[in-house]
Amino acid sequence: MAIIELKNIIKIFPSEKVGEGVHAVRDVSVSIEEGDIFGIIGYSGAGKSTLVRCINLLEKPTSGEVIVEGKNITGYSEVELRAVRRRMGMIFQHFNLLNSANVFENVAAPLKNQRRFSKEEIEEKIAELKKDSSLSQKEIKEKENTLLKSNKKLSGKEIKERVEEMLRLTGLEDKEKAYPSQLSGGQKQRVAIARALVGRPKILLCDEATSALDPNTTTQIIELLRSLQEKLKLTVVMITHQMEVVKSICNKVAVMEEGKIVEEGSLVEVFSEPKSSITKEFREKTLYRKEAIALAEKNKRNLYELTFIGEKANDPAIMDLVRNYPVEVSILFGNIEILSGVPFGTLTIDMKGEGKDILDAVAYLKSREIKVEELGGQKLAGQKFDGEHPLRGEESVSRQSPDNALKPEEEDKERKEDRIWNG
């Protein structure tokens, strides 16, 4: 079930310089399921931060609908929105802590004047009572009245218990008396996370939460968010321009460019089969593809990128390829990651041999359900090889002759081993 639905969201900021205003978000529709860690990635100015602020209506859309937990909140008053926002925590790039308050006071701030249960929680509890067939109508009414009477503001003791629980979950037990000026960037973000979750929301919005942190601290914060998402059963929306952040935590992703979502799907789908140019650009930055292509163009090599997904990541395909086809393979780049629990591997190889043999080898890899993309070099795909071919000259005639064709089972054992270890 979708916990967040955005329907045809448009956000235009007025501008004196631009007559029609600045179009920050252009007709965006997206559905986020309960329990998702949903990444929205894009470069600066893509509209992703504006979009996430439309979810809790910190930015009111020019047009479109925002539906949270099945309710259209687009037209809610500020009083009504306060109750909705208690169900949504939010963290920012620059922490937004109160410098004059210590850690405990910063985390406790959202609980001031908060009642034990939100309006939605009261409605859920009453609905559960009405479903209980063992209760009479009189008993249901009595329990309902008791519940409403008990829904008072949180006591000092209850606030202390909640804050201490969040400090423990975020690893800040020994920092409750410290002030923001005494904390590192990572510790400040942990305080911001504790403050966002102390009200026990169901949704956590993260707007560039790791952008101001160094790589090591970013990894720690990502691990903390993943742990909290599992423990607290959260739905998380991650806004970022960092592909590594999306890859390390998200199960679904949407790519934004110029205010539009240009691609959306599961992390594995989007990362393994990018369709838009911007997604391909993000992907190339993490796979060194530009370096590989430059190498191929410079040295006229036949470079291919192989993509292995799931169980195929453990497939000894290269070894089998060298054993069965008269080609030589050199491995230039390689990487295996776990994306949303699914092994995802890429391998950049240089393949040497007859043009036809290389094409046969590529077809063989594809038959093993391995995605093969030609990166550069001789660009053999689609070529026909009759007689002399561009790689080996006259030698190709005898190699491709039906009478003299080299059969895999006739290959010399020493030659095969030489290709395996030195190719």
TrEMBL record:
Gene3D superfamilies: 3.30.70.260, P-loop containing nucleotide triphosphate hydrolases
GO molecular function term, any single one: ATP hydrolysis activity
Residue stretches in coiled coil: 119-146
Keywords assigned: Amino-acid transport, ATP-binding, Cell membrane, Coiled coil, Membrane, Nucleotide-binding, Translocase, Transport
Compositionally biased intervals (Basic and acidic residues): 385-397, 406-423
Source organism, top-level taxon: Bacteria
Region (Disordered): 381-423
Pfam families associated with the record: ABC_tran, NIL
InterPro entries named among the record's database cross-references: AAA+_ATPase, ABC_transporter-like_ATP-bd, ABC_transporter-like_CS, ACT-like_dom_sf, MetN_ABC, MetN_ABC_transporter-like, NIL_domain, P-loop_NTPase
Sequence ranges assigned to domain ABC transporter in this UniProt record: 4-283
A Gene Ontology biological process term: amino acid transport
Signal sequence extent: none
PANTHER family, alphabetized: AMINO ACID IMPORT ATP-BINDING PROTEIN, METHIONINE IMPORT ATP-BINDING PROTEIN METN
Official protein name in the record: ABC transporter domain-containing protein
